[in-house]
Amino acid sequence: MPELPEVETFRLQTESTCLGKTVVKIKTSGLMTCPTDNKMLASVTNLKLTDTFRHGKYLFIEFDGNPKYLIFHFGMSGSFKFDKSQNSRSRKPAYKHCHIELCFSDNTRLSFIDPRRFGSVGIITPKAKEQLISNLGPDAASPKFNFEYLKEVTHRRSSPIKTLLLDQHLIAGLGNIYANEILFASGILPNRKAGSLSEAELKRLVKDCKSILKRAILERGSTLSDKGYSDIHGSKGSFQRLHNCYGLDGTACKTCDETIVKTLIGNRSTFYCPKCQI
Ligand SMILES: [Zn+2]
Do 75 and 118 meet the contact criterion of CB atoms below 8 Å apart? Predict the structure, then answer.
C-alpha cells in the first residue's frame, strides 16, 4: 500500500532522524526474501548515513565511504519505525515482523517492519540502481513526468487511463489510492481509453497529480481504516480526510451529491463519481 506520498514521508523522516548517524549493528529476522546476504548488509556497519533518495515507491539510503545503496521497497504492508533502542543483546530485531533493524551509535534505531513480507530490502551497486530506475517510468512527482511525457505514453493506447497511471514502467509512484483521487480531481472517468484523452485533459491530469501528491506528502500520506500505514513515529497520516472517492462508494459526492460508485478495472477497486467524471 505505501505509495509515493507515504514512501516520501518515510524518506523525509529518515533524513530528519537518522542523517549523520553511524550504524553500529544491523539485526535481521532472516525471514525475508532478501536479494542480499547478511555479509553484504554488514558492509554498512560503522558507516555514517549520509543521504537518501526516492524513485517511485523505492527508497535508497547512502552511506559515507560506501558506493553501494541500501534499498527498500515497502510492498503491501512495509513501514519504518524510528525510536530509542532498549539495549537488548538479542541478535534478532526487537519488533515483531521487523526484518531489518539499523542500530545507531546514539542508541536509536530504524526498524523496517513488514508483516505481509511483500516488501524487499537489499544492498545494490550504483549500476544496479541505475538499471532498476531505467526500468521504471519517471517519478510522478518529478519534472520528468509532464504533459509532453503523458501525451507520448497515452498516444493511441486503448488501455484504461487508470491502468496506465498504475503501470510503474510508465509512471513510478502512483498506486490505487492516488490514481483514483487524481482522476476524480481531473473529472476523468477511470475506464476512458488513455488515447482518447484531449490535450486539455492530459494537462489537467498532470497538474492534479502534482498538487495531490504535494498535499498528500504534507499530510504525511493516507492511513486507511485498516490502519495499515503509520509514519516513522507511529503517527497516522491525514490525507485520508481529503479523499474524495477512494473507499467512499455509496456515499454522496462532495461536489455534486451523486453517489460514488465502486467497480473493478484491471482487477483493482476503482471509485468514481458518475456525474463529475466524464
Ligand atoms: Zn460528483
Answer: yes
